[in-house]
Amino acid sequence: MDVQGPEPAKFSSEKEGQAQAGGQFGREENLTELEPLVDKLCRILKEMADVHEKALKLAEEKKERLIENDIEGLSEVVEREEKVLQEIETLEKERGRLADKLAGLTGEDELNISALKEQVSGERRRRLKKLQNKLNPLLEELDRVNEQNRQLLLQAMKFNEVTFKLFLQGADEQGVYKKPEQEGSAGDDGVDKEQVRNIIDRRA
C-alpha cells in the first residue's frame, strides 16, 4: 500500500472570498483574526511533517520487505501504514477547515503558503517558511519511494505469476494431469484442481 500524503503547501477552499486591493487586509480586525489562525496552521503543518516522516520510514521499510520477498513482514508494515494514513486524513480535514477560514479572510479562493507568508511578519513568517522548506522535500522523497515500491510490487506479481505457471507445469509432469473422462475432480482443462491444491498445501 502506498502511503499518499496531502499537499501541505497549498490550500483549497470551497468558500468564495471577496477580493481586496493588493491582497492586503482592509480592516485591522481581519489581521487580528488571521494571526491566531496562522499559529494553528503552523501547529497542523508541524504535525503533518511528523506524520509524513513516519510514512517515509514505513515506505522505506516496505521497500526492504518487498526486495526480501518477506510477505509476513510486509503485511505487518501495511497494518502500521493504515494507522498513519488515518492520522494524515484527520490532519488533512482539520487543515481543510482552516483553509476555508483563511481564504475567507484573505479574499482568495486558493491560498498557498508563499502568499500567506506575505500577510504576516516576524516569527510567524519564519515558521511558515521553515515548515514549507521541510514539507516540500519530504513529500517529494515520499512520492519517489512510493513509486519504487509500486514498481517492486508489479515485479513481484509478475514473478509470482510465472512461478505459479511453472509450478502447474511441474505438477502436470508429476501426474497431476488426468484425462477429462477420468473420475475425480478434474476440470474441463484436465487438471485435477483438488490434487493441485493438496500439493500447494504441502509445499507451503
Structural commentary:
The chain has one domain (10-158). Helices cover 73% and strands 3% of the residues. Helix 1 runs antiparallel to helix 2 and helix 1 (28-68) runs parallel beside helix 4 (122-176). The two termini are 24 Å apart. By secondary structure, it is mainly α. The longest helix has 55 residues, at 122-176. A two-stranded antiparallel sheet has the order 1-2.
Which ranges are low-confidence, i.e. pLDDT below 50, for 5 or more consecutive residues? 1-27, 176-191, 195-204
Structural class assignment? mainly alpha
Strand content: under 5%
Instruction: State the total count of DSSP E strands.
Output: 2
* Secondary-structure element string: EHHEHHH
Q: What spatial order of strands do you see in the largest sheet?
A: 1-2
Major β-sheet annotation: 2 strands, antiparallel
